Amino acid sequence: MNSNFLRRLRTAKSLNAVLTDRLGGRQSKKLVIDYSSPNIAKQFHIGNLRSTLIGRYLDKVHRAIGDDVTTVNYLGDWGTQFAMISTYWPQVRPSDSYWNSCGDVDKIRALTDCYVVANRKGKVDENFREKVRETYAEMENSIATYVPFIFKVTKEVGNVDFYRGDLSSPTMQLWRDIRELSERHLNHFYSMLNIEFDRFALSFIFSHNYIFWIC
């Protein structure tokens, strides 16, 4: 963080309002703050931390001045990245007994390593790139029967599974398993920073014509 960025934070009007208690007749606002937004199956990195700390700052300040805030963590769970992992994972996945004995941190580290190697392989191996494209096409086809719909979210609803389509393939089962593992791992990390989100959103939702609003 450079000095200009810190200066902007220090002189932000909302922060001044909190520190000087000069709110006047300001009306409260309804705000959605989307922050952190890591990818699944990857270790939390400094870029995620920067977004997380800035988002948490905005969240706390706006709640302190009376705004109605909903926080959303938009996970990157779809696309070529996951197709690479799914394609390469069978070659490096450890035995069931070893995998089941691993903790979440070790599992995420193994999946991160899998992606790094798969990404490197994809740059030089056309056959592998073609397999990745086939895997991604399978992912897309597995939810091609989805009917676009409006999903209304309230803070009371929490995180609801609303998947439809054929999720029975090994690729889609792996997707769900890794997504759940990643959410569990991230929640443990966020708890150490005393951060809670009202919603976890998934990038595959917004890739398939869902209308998503928060009230």
Primary descriptors:
5 strands; arginine-tRNA ligase activity; Arg-tRNA-ligase; mainly alpha; aminoacyl-trna synthetase; Rossmann fold; two-stranded parallel sheet
Q: Can you put this structure into words, describing what you see?
A:
By secondary structure, the protein is mainly alpha-helical. The chain has a single domain, classed as HUPs (Rossmann fold). The chain contains nine helices and five strands. The protein has helices at 3-10, 13-20, 46-64, 80-92, 96-101, 104-122, 126-142, 170-192, 203-206; strands at 30-34, 68-75, 150-153, 199-202, 211-214. The strands form two sheets. The chain has a three-stranded parallel sheet. A two-stranded parallel ribbon has the order 3-5. The chain is elongated and about 60 Å long. Mean pLDDT is 79; it is low at 147-163 and 210-215. This is Probable arginine--tRNA ligase, mitochondrial. Residues 25-157 form the Arginyl-tRNA synthetase catalytic core domain. InterPro entries: aa-tRNA-synth_I_CS, Arg-tRNA-ligase, ArgRS_core, Rossmann-like_a/b/a_fold.
